Amino acid sequence: MYFVHDDHPGRRVALGYCLNVLAGEDLVALERSLEQTCAAVRERVAPDGVLGIGLYLPAKVAFALAEDRAAKRRDGLRRRLDGLGLAAFTANAFPFGGFHRPGLKQRVFEPAWDERERALFTAAVAVIANDLAPDDARHVSISTHSGLHASALPADAAAARERVLACGRGMGLALGALDLLAQRTGRDTVLSIEPEPRSLAGDTRELAAVWPQLAEGAREELAARGVADPDAVVARHLGVCLDTCHAAVEFESTAGVLERLTERRIGKVQLASALRLPTPGDDAVGRARLLGLDEPVYLHQVTGRTPDGALVRAGDLGELADDRDPAWDACSEWRCHFHVPVDAPEPLPEAGGLTTTAAAGGELVGALLDAPERWGTDDLHLEVETYTFDVLPPAWREGGLAAGLAREFEWARALLDGRGWRPA
Asked: What confidence score (pLDDT) does residue 263 get?
């Protein structure tokens, strides 16, 4: 699970796979997935070692498992992880529940951060994640969204600012819980805000713009609750989750991302690929293949780059039907938020010129691997995340889930090896 580098003593990379790829909505389903899928992946990629995993716990599971009276059950689950050779060093608290349910789409952002349930859910996940984390974990990362879907932001500027501040206050409520947890565990839990296209923070540019208001709201909430040093709590427990799929969809450059993350704690990095279609106007096969991937569960935001470098945006893949604006077909490239395996062939089979952003994701992660001083933490949490496995075309998921996850692990390990990081 851990990787070290001779030139970076004291630093580690923790590599794992996000379990939001699994559809279970109760603890029994989670335990079954650990014993079957996760154990099978570990046998393939680390038969004599430990496999890192990122927890995904729907709210109804998290609330029940975080209760004081469930402490023994958490302890039993931790022992089960140890026995299976699994280490849960991070967690995903973005989807509240029903993540694989048809019709979810932008409701994945509900509850928003100005709703109390979001903070309570996040705190519950943090309690569980800390109890399940390996003893040598230096921090625990909890990924979340940036506040709400952009469509929920009021058009009036004053009302919009107040809602962003309210989201920040919700984050402050969660940060207060994380700080109390740190006093018990002796380790930081980093609430890691994940930019996603068409959300309050669609990319790291928008995150940088909205960060001061979120932090202001968080400090207000902490001060109102009697916290002596709200600035210190925000600095210690509020960070960023960088998703390489999302960054690629918005055509973010590696240099730009690194510059904008300066002085931000990188709680975790999610390694994922988006779909890209160069010269869409000249590729009828590629267009048809991409548009045919529209499905009713997940959001598939699309960004196009025009020949002069401007960006055009769609909220979901289904918006690019036959009656789309002609400006889309004049684009030099389309990129779509559709998580595909990082090891997918280039280009994709029988799909015209449709390919992926794996190279861009690898470049961004590689730059971070070369510069641990930018992490803001001693360990870089690296989590592979392709939650769309069940809706991928059959040719893209050959061998089943465990085999697919193992291939992605191997791809990520090769990336680490290429930058001089070796298993600890």
From this structure: 85
Tell me the one-letter amino acid at 316: D
Phi, then psi, of 382 in degrees rounded to 5: -120, 115
Non-local (6+) Cβ contacts of 190 within 8 A are: 139, 140, 141, 142, 237, 238, 239, 265, 267, 268, 377
Closest CA to 324 of 309, 334, 338, 339: 334
pLDDT higher than threshold 80 for residue 374: yes
C-alpha 284, offset from chain centre: 32
Tell me the three-class secondary structure of 35-78, residue by residue: HHHHHHHHHHHCCCCCEEEEEECCHHHHHHHHCHHHHHHHHHHH
CB atoms within 10 A of CB 71: 13
Other C-beta atoms closer than 10 Å to the C-beta of 13 total 26
CATH for 2-274+359-423, options being 1.10.1040.20, 3.40.50.1820, 1.20.1540.10, 3.20.20.150: 3.20.20.150
Mean pLDDT of 105-130: 98
- The DSSP output letter for 112 is P
Q: How many CA atoms lie within 13 A of 149 on its CB side?
A: 15
Give, in order, the Cα–Cα distances in Å from 212 to each of 190, 238, 285, 356.
Answer: 17, 12, 45, 34
Here the tokens at position 158 are 């004053």
| Distance separating alpha carbons of residues 398 and 388, to the nearest angstrom | 14
φ, ψ of residue 96 in degrees (nearest 5): -80, -30
pLDDT value of residue 335: 98
Instruction: Please report the pLDDT score of residue 398 as a whole number.
Output: 86
Digit-coded pLDDT (tens) for 175-201: 999 999 999 999 999 999 999 999 999
Q: Which of 404, 412, 409 has its CA nearest to residue 366?
A: 412
Separation CA 179–CA 186 (nearest Å): 10
Tokens at 224, concatenated: 């109102």
Instruction: Determine the residue type at 396.
Output: W
Sorted by sequence, the CB contacts under 8 Å of residue 64 that are 6+ apart come out as 27, 70
**Tokens 């989590």 map to which residue?**
383
How far apart are alpha carbons 354 and 349 in whole angstroms? 9
Give 201-240 pLDDT, tens digit per residue: 999 999 999 999 999 999 999 999 999 999 999 999 999 9
Report the distance separating Cα 250 and Cα 257, nearest Å.
Answer: 11
